[in-house]
């Protein structure tokens, strides 16, 4: 375990980084997020919401032209060409156009915030897949090095058996330990390959390189975990989208109440009868007389507005839960990594004593093999704890909009 011992010493006595390293280049991340299908779909829906807002602002009422031509035949008088034409258009009553514009604006706001949240979710997926890959690669490096160390240990034991300085049982034990280490190395290499394949499939434009970077040591954010937790709520696009939906539903309910009085239609009519002997022009007016149907639609819109307001409150609860969970996980994952680091340091010290005792003939090979395995397990545990701490801190930074998805205050 000499290389593992050296790596462990470097890990234990290195100074924590000020910023959070280990993440891909921000420009590459931005391009990968822009290219993700979920982000593209959300941006397209934003364009649809803007088009709908323009349609609502203009209104659905259009000028309607209608006309007719008749050839009338009258006994003993002959035939006559007769025609008429009319233009009509409905007009929104005062206040309805303003409500339609508000509905469109709130719809655009909701779509824009959902597009930002889609980017947020894509960023979380990228971070999750990224740390899956780096964590699996870190474990694979530990297992490969352990297999190499067991190979060298077995060679040393066989040389001692050849000169009758050790029993064949010692060689058998060393070979069994090597077999277990090789199995662990194959399994961890497979997990690394799967994690890389998943990351490359979800984000094909993200440059990955031939090998995964090492998982760096975690560092607590300069602002503090609690401050970032507050930013999770403050910068939440989920809350902004839910609030926009609630305001849109409220404006829609007001529009439905206003629509209980139907919009009137005005127009002009011109006609010619009996071959032009009779001509005329006039003004047209029509207005539907609303009844129970329009009242029911207004009641429906009121109920939907109330439900949407409750949905917005539920979203606030969910985002607050996310913030609390992010802060709690960041704290305990960082503390767990520190304890794993301390445990690794103790295992390294114990192994050093076992190695010296075995060389002096005071400790059996089985005891040294046990110590080697415990150090190997301690390295894997520390690597796992380090990866999970980095994963939790990265998630907190993404949810607080400190990295990758902007730091706007809107």
TrEMBL record:
Signal peptide limits: 1-19
Keyword annotations from UniProtKB, A to Z: Signal
PANTHER family: BLR4935 PROTEIN, OUTER MEMBRANE CATION EFFLUX PROTEIN
Protein name in UniProt: Transporter
Phylogenetic classification of the source organism: Bacteria, Pseudomonadati, Pseudomonadota, Alphaproteobacteria, Sphingomonadales
């Amino acid at each position: 375990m000499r290389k593992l011992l050296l790596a462990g010493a470097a890990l234990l006595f290195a100074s924590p980084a000020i910023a959070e390293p280990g993440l891909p280049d921000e420009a590459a991340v931005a391009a990968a997020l822009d290219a993700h299908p979920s982000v593209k779909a959300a941006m397209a829906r934003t364009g649809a919401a803007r088009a709908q807002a323009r349609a609502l602002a203009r209104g659905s009422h259009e000028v309607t032209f209608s006309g007719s031509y008749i050839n009338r035949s009258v006994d003993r008088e002959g035939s006559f060409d007769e025609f008429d034409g009319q233009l009509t258009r409905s007009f929104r009553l005062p206040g309805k156009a303003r409500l339609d514009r508000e509905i469109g604006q709130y719809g655009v706001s909701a779509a824009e915030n959902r597009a930002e949240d889609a980017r947020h979710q894509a960023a979380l997926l990228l971070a999750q897949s990224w740390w899956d890959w780096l964590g699996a690669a870190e474990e694979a490096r530990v297992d490969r090095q352990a297999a190499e160390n067991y190979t060298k240990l077995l060679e040393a034991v066989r040389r001692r058996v050849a000169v009758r300085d050790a029993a064949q049982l010692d060689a058998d034990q060393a070979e069994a330990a090597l077999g277990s280490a090789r199995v662990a190395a194959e399994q961890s290499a497979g997990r690394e390959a799967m994690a890389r394949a998943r990351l490359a499939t979800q984000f094909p434009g993200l440059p990955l390189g031939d090998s995964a970077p090492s998982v760096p040591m975690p560092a607590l954010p300069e602002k503090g975990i609690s401050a970032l937790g507050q930013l999770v709520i403050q910068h939440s696009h989920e809350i902004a989208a839910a609030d926009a939906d609630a305001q849109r539903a409220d404006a829609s309910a007001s529009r439905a109440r206003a629509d209980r009085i139907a919009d009137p239609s005005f127009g002009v009519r011109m006609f010619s009868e009996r071959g032009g002997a009779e001509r005329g022009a006039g003004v047209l007016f029509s207005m539907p007389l609303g009844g129970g149907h329009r009242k029911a639609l207004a009641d429906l819109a009121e109920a939907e507005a109330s439900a949407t307001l409750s949905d917005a409150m539920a979203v606030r609860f969910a985002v607050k839960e996310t913030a609390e969970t992010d802060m709690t996980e960041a704290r305990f994952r960082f503390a767990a990594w520190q304890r794993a680091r301390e445990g690794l340091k103790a295992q390294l010290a114990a192994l050093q004593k076992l190695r010296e005792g075995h060389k002096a003939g005071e400790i059996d090979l089985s005891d040294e093999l046990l110590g080697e395995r415990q150090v190997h397990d301690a390295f894997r545990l520390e690597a796992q704890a380090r990866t999970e701490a980095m994963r939790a801190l990265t998630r907190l930074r993404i949810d607080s909009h400190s990295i990758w998805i902007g730091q706007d205050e809107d």
